Amino acid sequence: MIETKNFQGKPAVVSPPVTDFLWAFGPTNGTLLSDQLILSPSGEIKGYSHPNERSWRIENYRLLILNEAGDIMWRSVEAFKDPEGLLTIVLEYPGNPETRFILKQQATLASAATIAPVIKPAEIQKTLETTVLPEGLSDADFLFPPDLEVTPVKIEKVLLVGSCLTALYHEQLQARHPETKFDYIPYNFVSVLPDAPPSPTSDYDFQYLQIPLRSVLSDRVIWGFRFNEEGFTKTILQDAYSVIDAMLSSAMIYNERHGLLTFVSNFIVPQMSTASSMYERGSNNDLTTIVQRLNDYLNEKVASYKNAYLLNIDAVASTIGKRYILDDLVYFYSHGAVTYQDWDDFGSIARNEPIPPLETVYPVKKDAFLDAIFRQMVTAYRTTKQVDQVKAVVFDLDNTLWRGQIAEHYRPEAQPWPRTDGWPLGLWEAIHYLRARGILVAICSKNDYDYVKTRWDDVIEPKLISLDDFSSVKINWTPKAQNISEICKEFNIKPKSVVFVDDNPVERAAVASALPDVRVIGGNPYLTRRILLWSAETQIARMTEESGKREEMIRGQIEREETRSTMDRSEFLASLNCEVSFINITSTDQPEFGRTLELTNKTNQFNTNGQRWSFENIADFLKAGGKILAFKVKDKFTEYGLVGVLYLKGTEITQYVMSCRVLGMEVEEFVVAEAVKLLRSARSAETDITATIKETPDNTPCREVYLRAGFRETAKQEGVRQFILDGDEVPMLPLHIKKA
């Protein structure tokens, strides 16, 4: 309860004395927007600037916060103190009372003033009323944003293979990350790795391989004058390519034998040109050019291996600043390692002038570099395992895809219009790069659709994006959470696979309240592009045919559903001209294998046990006699690509995974019939076929698939449902589907 019935900035006694505090402000279940907000005695809100929060007053024992139009944006519903006696005021949005923000007491203005006692009293209030700038992001978080992470991953054990730089990783990362066990195998020149690593291969989450640049180039490049010799550079490059081939082949034995997930570091390019003259900088006689070419070659070679990926350590070093990292300011250009003052004996040999600590002339960012390298490993692991993967990004329009409001700031008579350079253009480009990764993009905006469509080309200048670029467009006055739910249904995805970008904290909080699994961003436009493009959760390990065609498939699917609503079920199914083609996956070398693994690990709803598979797991499953039956679907609307996988062993369907985009077409029963046929073909036509379903929170759509296919259910075993198709029974076979 806030005492004093009415307060509008005039002198009055307010209890508690809300004007005496700094307040933290933000959503109850999200990141706070400010910890410097001040409820000024004048009735203004200071220390935090947003059109939604401009002034305040107390009325009928409630704290009211008003927007710039003077309308009530927030009203208090509860106030309480924590064990330390600090006050929290809970606020609700009148338009949606479930949307809650808080004001949380930070410190009194008087105590805050003591933080900087050198400031004169008259300057204290002015200082407090300015927004404090954030300290900035760490290099690791800048390069590899954590904003879209939901599920933590624990890296249990890593195998490090490499030379001097990897030895530093082993020494330092083990101390910095004691929760992870690091094994190390030194690797220089074209040496042979042990037949088995220090621990069983299956114990490692991944191996990290660093081929030493000095071994690849050899010490011939130290004699720089030799680059003036005709043919020397050509010899260096040809020999270096051969050494990379040999070293990579030897170092990849655990990957090739056991399918161990492998990350390969590229080379750090020297900081400055080594050419003999300015004219030759960037030429084949420049070592920087040679190392860049070696990186290109290494990238091509790593791509030829299965379950292996190149990590760009050179980009990490460049972003942090090679002057703070790379040792070529002291050591050889070909050494390619981190500056670390462990070469000196520090006084054991007399010198006229003692060697000072390296940091006095070269500030070293070894720790920041190591943090970024480990973070790069972790995020690459998250991407390959598809942890928290984003499948769709939904954008607001006003103050998100353009500055200002289309109905207010872009009127023909209101000139000049807001600028269109900077962050809006960056987001327009980001939309296309997300689409290139197979991530769907949509619009969800409170606006008039016809007005936006009419004015789109006026506002979007240059014309880099159009409404047709978005797979779903919801421009209306419906609550955004409801629109996003509809988008999820259209895309056949769960809310946890969606990111919502909106500048308005109230809208973000409303969506987060109604759909807690949706990730919401967009408050700071200078962060949005980087988060969307650089996060592990928006990266794709390998593009598949289906990923590239996802947008086209979704458009066809939406058209299909619109047709479905105009016809009865049997008529609709008969009209589909549906065809299913089957692929037997017998090897990880098959081109369809990548999509098989992706689909298995992305699918939650139609997944009969929720099991995730690694590359190594599937390779072992096939070696042990397991069969994998994959299938593609097409109808008159679109080709859906490879949309389902069944794991078969003996006489059992052990797991059945299917994309929900073809759910309801009776494809799921048709495919079970084909699996039964395949399992019986190796035995007798009257063999009993079994299947199981382990219920998960998400897999409701597949729980009756075997019953619909003609199986009968038997007693559960350890909570797992058991099904059997007796040998004298044949599965149900939908007649409107053809086998291609």
From TrEMBL:
InterPro entries: FkbH_domain, HAD-like_sf, HAD_sf, HAD_SF_ppase_IIIC, SGNH_hydro_sf. One of its GO terms (molecular function) is hydrolase activity, acting on ester bonds. It comes from the Bacteria. SUPFAM superfamilies: HAD-like. This is Phosphatase. It comes from Acetobacter persici. The lineage of its organism: Bacteria, Pseudomonadati, Pseudomonadota, Alphaproteobacteria, Acetobacterales.
